[in-house]
Amino acid sequence: MRKTGLINLFIIFSEEIIVFDSCNSNRGLFKVNIMILGPAGSGKSLLTKSFSDYLREEGYNVKVINLDPGCISLPYDCDYDIRSKFTIEEIMRKEGLGPNGALLKAMEKLSKMNIPSFNADFTLIDAPGQLEVFIFHKAGPKIAGKLKNSIGVFIIDATIGVKDLPAAYLYSLATRYRLGIEMINVINKVDLLEEGEAEKVKAYLINPASQAKKIKPKGMLSDIYIPLSELLQKVVPAQRVPLLSAKYKIGFSELLDMLYEVKCACGDLT
Ligand SMILES: Nc1nc2c(ncn2[C@@H]2O[C@H](COP(=O)(O)OP(=O)(O)OP(=O)(O)O)[C@@H](O)[C@H]2O)c(=O)[nH]1
Ligand SMILES: [Mg+2]
Known about the structure:
Layout: E1 8-13, E2 16-21, E3 32-37, H1 44-57, E4 62-66, E5 80-81, H2 88-95, H3 99-111, E6 122-126, H4 131-136, H5 139-146, E7 150-157, H6 165-179, E8 182-188, H7 197-206, H8 208-215, H9 220-235, H10 252-264
Parallel strand pairs: 3-6, 3-7, 4-5, 4-6, 7-8
Antiparallel strand pairs: 1-2
Helix pairs in contact: 2-3, 3-5, 7-8, 8-9
The structure holds guanosine-5'-triphosphate and magnesium ion.
Magnesium ion binds at residues 44-45, 68, 71, 126, 129.
């Protein structure tokens, strides 16, 4: 049963049918691309699987795209898989390249291709495993630019710990800056944290400057931790941060709410 589906309006523009769902509640989300981004191993593929399952259980029409040409297996069935065009292994073999050279080549190829656009409420896009190659290569912004109406979900691995959060946060900022898309930061793998630790992580991300003073970092870190946290406070928009577990499907309704809020641009994300 769709969570908020009270009224559906069908509006026909030329060949396209646009469905506005429950227009009385700001939940008219339609045809949104969700790019699942994050460092290697942060849980992009598992989140793609479990969040797409969750959305389907909520009654949404969901499609899934895999843009990672380097993976061997995936935990979900996809509607479009870049590996049907090329894989890292193939490029390495055919072009005599090492893994990183093949990755660069793959990103170039990807930037020249058309990525399908589905008529679905949500299209989840599992980004390449080596995020740094994707975002720092010129292909990354090109690929993101092809995807209309997209929102990034940037995964921070909960196990990084509060002291190292500024580094993860900077990575998310760099990704947002390079790809030029709206971004929601999420913390994944909260099931692995001790009680109380998840709340500390969340408090830092919402209010880095004041939390940094409580953490009292030592050594070289102390010189940069507080100024860096103050800078983050200035440049990162105040936003609440869903605590997720892709493994146990925790925090998904908060993430869904935030996606709606970003899309309708009228929500308050704090
Ligand atoms: N405990 C726990 N493990 C998780 C969670 N999410 C992902 N994992 C595990 O983390 C590992 C990496 O998950 P993936 O989904 O492959 O991560 P990824 O970001 O797609 O990895 P690459 O594509 O290789 O960069 C796997 O062993 C997952 O089972 C979570 O919420 N909790
Ligand atoms: Mg993956």
